[in-house]
Predict the 3D structure of the following.
Amino acid sequence: MVFAALRNRRLARATGAAPAPAPVDGEVLLETVGLTKSYAGADGELPVLAGIDLKVRAGEIVALLGRSGSGKSTLLRCLAGLVPPSSGTVTYRGENLTGANPGTAMVFQTFALLPWLTVQQNVELGLEAKGMPADERAEAALQAIDLIGLDGFESAYPKELSGGMRQRVGFARALVVEPDVLMMDEPFSALDVLTAENLRGELMELWESGQFPTRAVVLVTHNIEEAVLMADRIVVLGSRPYGTIRETIEIGLDRPRDRNAPEFEELIDRVYRIMTGRPKETRTPSRTETPAAEKRSLANTPLPTATVDGLSGLAEIVAHRDGTADLADLADGLGLDVDDVLPLVDALDLLGLAEIHGDDLRLTDRGVSFAGADVQTSKRIFAEAARDLPLVRTILTSLRQSRDGTLRAGFFRDVLAHHYTSEQLTRQLDTATDWGRYAELYSYAAEPEEYRLDEQGLDVQGLGGPGLGGQV
Ligand SMILES: Nc1ncnc2c1ncn2[C@@H]1O[C@H](COP(=O)(O)OP(=O)(O)OP(=O)(O)O)[C@@H](O)[C@H]1O
Ligand SMILES: [Mg+2]
């Protein structure tokens, strides 16, 4: 790779460092041993990753696959040296990392371009930071721009570009420093389907032709097909209580890969099952990933992002299949992505309306009644199930203790801010609003953003507070 060798020499000259020998195929570039990561929360440390042992070798593309919140981005940031692990080690070519990893460059989902700089200036940023002289920077940037198909756009500003072209700038900016490992955090998920497909295809062609100026790629994705299409190895992260490596799958398929080949489809199915199933050792009894009812708290029991319509629909479909359905077949039959179905499954599980046994989703007795009942009865069943969930219960308890049975949404946002990011807490409140309304436990008025206790909510026994009697 002449391009790479030249650049290495230039960078070495610019930084005064001796050029490190280029990695040979199979050399371990990145390694984590016993990596754990927790973030400080109101209730103490919130574990996100635990016991991660991972190696990334020269010559391979590794996909980190997992559901939202499983810690994929956190693991990527630890590998890039952008956040320190809580314990365990991260090494790059055998050296312990103490700051930003010199061997990696990152491509973000949101492009992260500077709007006041041109394409070329954006691409040159990373080289400037390394102290490369201006003329060499320009030459290197133009090569990367050419490589990634941005020729002719050098002096355009990001706002003039389509999403696909902006992400090409993201790639050029990362590739221009010729990192040993290219890190990508859901790089295609903000793009429309065709643009994403096109860009993926071009990148894979570059990788296969040996023109790619990096020696390994770590790709974060929640898209199974993307992982099977691109990766040599898929590392599936589990979630709850915290992220561990659930399984590693070698993808031995020849490149370029044919999505229609039976082997491709078999692998998709296999990965799908790993994602939808529960870890083997905890398959029965089910619900081991959901904290036991008495141990549930606002922090450890987020509401899955599922509407009542969605989860009732799924319950009805499963009821029609005699109360049990293979999850992968079910999602496949409905033409849905795993990310669409799993929150609904989690919601049914959390509400005690269904349980997961191996790969199957089974309705409980309560779930069968819920699916088969008229509207009023299903509302009642749903209310009984939902009022025990921490967030719904918090809203109910607080409303009962308020002066007139109403409270502003801001109050609950403040309570939740101890446990969730602002985006997450909006999703939590949206879900709690939808569920509580359906159950007729409380209502919500968008103007003036206020919750109000319903009669049903007043009837719930066992909640704290004086009760509001006739005040509502
Ligand atoms: N800086 C932070 N402070 C506190 N908690 C955080 C921070 N960053 C992430 N978390 C929490 O860590 C968990 C894992 O987050 P992470 O972003 O790594 O997951 P992810 O798998 O990338 O999810 P997604 O698919 O939604 O991007 C989440 O519960 C998140 O709320
Ligand atoms: Mg992420």
Q: What stands out?
A: Residues 39, 48, 66, 68-74, 222, 421 surround adenosine-5'-triphosphate (ligand 1) (CB under 6 Å). Residues 1-6, 279-288, 464-472 have pLDDT under 50 and may be disordered. The first strand starts at residue 28 and ends at 41. The chain has three domains: 2-276, 293-382, 387-471.
